[in-house]
Amino acid sequence: MTPSETPADPPPARAPRRRRRWLRWTLGGLGALVVLLVVGILVYTQVGVMGAEPGPLAEARANQALTITDDGAGIVLSPATGATGQGLVFIPGAKVEAEGYIATLADTVVDDGVTVVITRPWLNLAFFDPRPLSTFTDLAPDVSTWAVGGHSLGGVRACQLASDADALVLFASYCANDLSASGLPVLSLSGSEDGLSTPQKIADAKGELPATATFVEIPGASHASFGSYGPQPGDGTPTADPAEVDRVIAEQLAGFLPRP
């Protein structure tokens, strides 16, 4: 190389550009996947939501002995007179509106003076609702003792909140977390014709509960018998009269719920 010659320019840095392009494509693809996932979840939680049967709901609302207050976070059912200071926070099953349980729990409120708070889970799925039990017990400040319970997936969530309650009630449900050493009073209500939370599934999960837990299987009751929202896909065929199932539920709760 002579003094008058200069070194050739280096080749373009193509490799870093390719890496940056690949990174943009990757991040863009992941972002699109997240958006699709969120949209899919939102669509799933809003499609096929089961509402209350009009007849039983209208009858409950016409009952002057029953006071119904909608607070947004939940529906508070309280007796017009004779409140005992007992309370139950009830968590609905997956994609079942809170109103679908008003008629079922009305007897417990009117006949036994128990205040019931039916929660409104986020996105209609208790799995997505991180709120503590106090969010719902605060809606009824005059109640002294609280049980927490739920139907189906709502019962699974109730098990997670049970450490903050005085008792646990499972309605066609079972726990996914271990409460066997908790010493908590537990009542498990189930149906012989349940096609979803089957008798076998409830028996298999029995070890998650204290040895003192009480198990009551209602003859002829299906999964949807624990609410008043109509038939449910995958469920068994109920043979019990709905009014009889409601009566048994109220009777069992009356003998179980802790008193102040």
Jot down its keywords.
alpha/beta, 260 residues, 8 strands, 7 helices, 33% helix, globular, 17% strand
Distance between the termini: 100 Å
Our Rg estimate from Cα atoms comes to 26 Å
User: Total strand count, please?
Assistant: 8
Which assembly state applies to the chains in this document? single chain
How much strand content do the residues show?
15-25%
Unreliable sequence segments: 36-45
Give the helix level as a range of percent.
Answer: 25-40%
Can you give the mean pLDDT?
A: 90
Describe this structure in words.
The chain has 260 residues and is α/β, with parallel strands linked by helices. Helices cover 33% and strands 17% of the residues. It is built from seven helices and eight strands. It has an eight-stranded mixed beta sheet with strand order 1-2-4-3-5-6-7-8, with helices on both faces. Strand 5, helix 5 (153-161) and strand 6 (167-171) form a beta-alpha-beta unit. The longest helix has 33 residues, at 14-46. The radius of gyration is 26 Å and the shape is globular. Residues 36-45 have low confidence and may be disordered.
In short:
This protein is α/β, with parallel strands linked by helices. It is built from seven helices and eight strands; from the N terminus they run H-H-E-E-E-H-E-H-E-H-E-E-H-E-H. The model is unreliable at about 35-45 (pLDDT under 50).
Give the helix/strand layout.
Blueprint: H1 14-46, H2 54-61, E1 66-70, E2 74-79, E3 86-91, H3 102-112, E4 115-119, H4 134-137, E5 145-151, H5 153-161, E6 167-171, E7 186-191, H6 199-204, E8 214-218, H7 242-256
Parallel strand pairs: 3-4, 3-5, 5-6, 6-7, 7-8
Antiparallel strand pairs: 1-2, 2-4
